[in-house]
Design goal:
With 400 residues, the chain is of the alpha/beta class. The chain contains 13 helices and eight strands. The strands form two sheets. It has a six-stranded mixed beta sheet. It is globular and about 60 Å long.
């Protein structure tokens, strides 16, 4: 397994960012990967690409570049998997879906009746309610779906149709530690060894980000002295002139045919979402998929509603527990599998590692579907927790 920090400008990467779009990014990545494979003798391997969040852009564009290379020695793409991705129009992904999301999790948000009534009225006025009810359907109405106005295109400091930020602000008033990545979080903010991500995150006095420890950097052969950040403060799409006003100029891969080409080339594309993710709600991702055509038909013809099974696995390491049983829903049509995990947030593998591991097994062809009710395919040998470090707490207490 190869973990890659990219594009240039993030993490431990070296060099100066010089790109402005995903095409340039994918070409740089392909050049890096070919050199890496040559250096470490990794030619003639099947390659699977995975990612999360903005990797909804990165992974399909990189996969498309691998396909264009027509070179199975270095770029034999066998499948992709992305979770909680941004695939296209952010208005569709966030604004249209935010009020239905609020309704679904109303007991978690606990917002008052006057705000709830007002936000529903604004959703109606902005055409979000009718849009949601019309286009999140199975099978979908004919594409392309109409493009909604950008709520930030107006000069108003508080755009009327920016409902996402309205709900976010209200949620923070009720729960000051509201986490857009995992809505069940409450105060206090937890300290993360990887550092601050959200506004208001807590960092204890004198604490050091794990990947900024010089001993860690030396141990993993990273450039010692690098100021590593989870989310870089550099503009990685500023181009050769480092124009700070620029941003990624590419359309979402669901909007320009990129994702379609990848699905049809691999017939092994897996896209998923954690239902506790407020930043990129599950139905925003589904709506983006309903707006594209692949392998002869548009969207999913039926709602992905088969139960997602994650194997039970005896495990007594309290530092790394993973849920088991039926954890969500899934469906697969014409080479694309979509799944959702009910109790996972934006960082799905963090919150539901067992389900995420099952995704890897499906991607690699070890299981036929998320409906398979057998054990993990790697579940053999001493996995039951009988070694001293994994003894059940009850057994340890009995010894005393």
């Amino acid at each position: 397994m190869l973990w890659v920090e990219q594009p240039v400008g993030v993490g431990y990467t070296q060099g100066v960012p010089n790109i402005t779009n995903e095409i340039e990014l994918s070409q740089e990545f392909a050049g890096f990967y070919k050199q890496f494979a040559t250096t470490f003798g990794l030619e003639n391997r099947k390659v699977y690409l995975t990612g999360e969040s903005y990797a909804g852009y990165y992974v399909p564009y990189i996969a498309d570049e691998f396909i264009k290379q027509e070179d199975d020695v270095y770029f034999n793409l066998a499948g992709i998997a992305i979770n909680d991705p941004i695939l296209g129009d952010s208005t569709l992904a966030q604004q249209v879906t935010v009020v239905p999301y609020l309704d679904y999790w109303a007991n978690v948000f606990s917002l008052n009746a006057s705000f709830t009534s007002a936000i529903h009225e604004r959703a109606d006025q902005c055409n979000y309610t009718s849009y949601y009810n019309t286009y999140l359907s199975f099978p979908p109405p004919p594409a392309p779906f109409p493009v909604l106005p950008d709520p930030f295109a107006s000069d108003s400091e508080y755009p009327t149709c920016d409902l996402f930020d309205a709900v976010y602000t209200a949620a923070q008033a009720v729960n000051p530690c509201f986490n857009i990545y995992h809505i069940l979080d409450t105060c206090p903010f937890l300290w993360n060894q990887l550092g601050i991500v959200n506004q208001g995150d807590y960092q204890p006095p004198g604490a050091q980000v794990y990947f900024n420890r010089t001993d860690v950097q030396a141990a993993i052969n990273a450039p010692v002295g690098t100021n590593w950040m989870q989310c870089t403060d550099k503009n990685v799409f500023g181009g050769a002139t480092n124009n700070q006003s620029l941003s990624d100029r590419s359309l979402g891969p669901a909007a320009d045919g990129t994702l379609t080409r990848v699905i049809e080339a691999t017939n092994n594309t897996i896209i998923g979402a954690g239902n506790l993710d407020f930043l990129l709600p599950t139905n925003g991702t589904l709506m983006a998929l309903q707006n594209i055509t692949w392998n002869g038909q548009q969207g999913f013809q039926a709602y992905p509603a088969t139960e997602f099974y994650t194997p039970y696995h005896p495990e007594y390491n309290d530092g790394a527990l993973a849920g088991a049983g039926y954890l969500g829903l899934w469906g697969s049509e014409r080479g694309l599998t979509f799944y959702q995990v009910q109790l996972a947030g934006h960082e799905l593998p963090e919150y539901a590692p067992g389900a995420a591991y099952r995704v890897m097994e499906l991607l690699l062809g070890r299981i036929k579907s998320f409906g398979d009710a057998g054990d993990f395919t790697t579940q053999e040998g001493n996995f039951t927790g009988t070694t001293p470090i994994y003894k059940p707490a009850r057994a340890q207490r009995a010894l005393h």
